[in-house]
Amino acid sequence: MVVLSVMMPKTSHALAGLTVPANIVIIKNFAFNPSVLTVNAGEKVIWAHDDAVDHIVVLPGLSESQLMKRGDKFEYVFSQPGEYKYHCGIHPSMTGTIIVK
Q1: Residue 55: what pLDDT?
Q2: Alpha-carbon distances, residue 5 vs 8, 25, 29, 43, 53 (angstroms)
Q3: What's residue 21's pLDDT?
Q4: Confidence band, pLDDT 50/70/90 cuts, at residue 85
Q5: Which of 18, 41, 43, 82 is deepest in the core (most CB within 10 A)?
Q6: How far apart are CA 71 and CA 54, in angstroms?
């Protein structure tokens, strides 16, 4: 019997047993995970909803998702370096930050 071992990059996250890119934010348990994410200018960030309640991702002055239910995704490409704070439009205590290099 041959057993193969696959090393996954440290920057990946698991969602429902699948490996997803590091530039994804999981919405679960009234939180954004990770709450701070660093990406390069020109990269897309994906928010993936995996919570029991609805949420809205608000990037002030940039964009806003529609009402998100479990399984929905919201994407945004950050073209300029900077620090971008965001929150949930329904639950303002849910906050996060995207740092763009």
Answers
A1: 98
A2: 10, 27, 32, 30, 37
A3: 56
A4: very high
A5: 43
A6: 11
